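Here is a typical sample entry:
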Amino acid sequence: GTVDEEQGGAGAEAFARWVRRQPFTLDTLMVAEPTRSTPVHGHKGAARVEFEVLGKATHSAQPHLGQNAITAAAHLILALDQEHQRLQRVTAAALGPATLTVTLIQGGVGLNVVPDACRLSVDRRVVQGEQAVAVTTGLRALAQRSSPLPVSTRVIREMDPFYQAPDTHWLRQLTEWSGHAQAVVLAF
């Protein structure tokens, strides 16, 4: 059993670290989740990243003396949206298409100040055939290319996707025991 899967996923990660230290190999593993007994054999992974665009503050009456971090972040947001659109054109895998969503944005300190910083967070869902670490590396490079101002990157979470072929003996057995059809989970 694991805990904390809906908030931080720390339970499964701690369990995986523990298993790797043991002198045995697991043949089968079932993680109990609130699926109403549906055997789930796949879910998307995630790459969650925070970008901070750094500008130069000045009074808004003289914007030419500053560097507007929000305006530069807008360039990055549009590039991220274009990347999401590109991902939608890629042939979808069993887990569906990869996605990229800007989920949070914060910037500025006052109505009369050119903002010197703008922070935005993204959630990139990772599908089979991709690795979360490589996805975050790609997002970092996209940010550097897209923003006219310097960008720092903080990786919040990297989790690879999980997918097991539905025709394995273990999944067929779980399907029989549960009485429910197998499924993949497209969100977590």
About this structure: The first strand starts at residue 40 and ends at 43. The longest helix spans residues 69-89. The mean pLDDT is 91.
